[in-house]
């Protein structure tokens, strides 16, 4: 009777969000959404326990199918449930572990199926189903946060894109479009020390150095999208993640750059927030 109610989970570098999703309606069930901070530098058993405690709270919020769909950052073996994250500033303790087995054991009989999907793919699937991208046939989605997530959407179906390791400006995209770049650049230009991007965004009155960083980010992202557009003629870009919350600091510059390069694509900031990944994960299984 409750096969349409699936637990959608979004795991980030510093948090986990979980909720029950009605996949037929594309909505989150009232009272089922829970979000907690996570110490991503902790050992495997601590991380698993923290994740599962949040998921259990969502599962207990209403009748459901017993299925859990998890939007997980990469690199990760999504089919077999094994983490390959190492040296990325998050979840090193899970490296090489069978995360699916550990989570099924911790969750117990409340869960009969658990699957993993690339987090950017889930984010874009949610946007394709119920967001700004639903009217476009060929869409690229990027999550800007602790890492650089990417997905491609063709005719309403999102698939992983893995552009985080795409060669770019002498490095890879992850080097230029993740929180580490922002922190390093701001510290370099200002001579000050900030710990994370949230500290920057929460204090957006930091003046010229902050604007310089976001201007450079917009230029870099514009260059990347221009290069990508030559290979794949997408007609829409959707941006999500914590850095996208500061879109007023870079979106006008990005749109202007794309216009000057004759790249005729629509660029949207996700209005669904974390709900996009939760709904997208649940709708992907």
Protein described:
It is a single chain. This protein is an alpha/beta fold and 285 residues long. The protein folds into 2 domains: 5-122 and 275-283, ATPase, nucleotide binding domain (Nucleotidyltransferase, domain 5, 2-Layer Sandwich), CATH 3.30.420.40; 134-269, Nucleotidyltransferase, domain 5 (2-Layer Sandwich), CATH 3.30.420. Helix content is 36%, strand content 24%. It has helices spanning 44-59, 99-107, 119-130, 173-176, 179-190, 197-202, 208-231, 251-260, 274-283; strands spanning 5-11, 15-22, 27-28, 34-37, 67-72, 76-77, 82-83, 113-118, 138-144, 148-154, 157-160, 167-168, 171-172, 236-240, 266-269. Strands 1, 2, 3, 4, 5 and 8 form a 6-stranded mixed sheet that branches. A 5-stranded mixed sheet has the order 11-10-9-14-15, covered by helices on one side. A hairpin with a 4-residue loop joins β6 and β7. α3 packs across α9 (274-283) and α5 (179-190) packs antiparallel against α7. The mean pLDDT is 92.
- Rg estimate, integer Å: 19 Å
Q: Could you name the ranges where pLDDT drops below 50 across 5 or more consecutive residues?
A: none
Estimate the strand proportion: 15-25%
Number of helices: 9
Note the gap between the termini.
17 Å
Structural class: alpha/beta
Tell me the count of domains: 2
**Can you tell me the CATH class of the largest domain?**
Alpha Beta
What oligomerization state is this entry in? single chain
Taken in chain order, the helices and strands follow as EEEEHEEEHEHEEEEEHHHHEHEH
| Mean of all residue-level pLDDT scores | 92
Main sheet makeup: 6 strands, mixed
Number of strands: 15
Shape: globular
User: Helix content range of the residues, please?
Assistant: 25-40%
CATH-derived architecture of the largest domain: 2-Layer Sandwich
* CATH-assigned fold name of the largest domain: Nucleotidyltransferase, domain 5
CATH homologous superfamily classification of the largest domain? ATPase, nucleotide binding domain
Protein name: ROK family protein
InterPro entries: ATPase_NBD, ROK
Pfam family, one: ROK
Family: Belongs to the ROK (NagC/XylR) family.
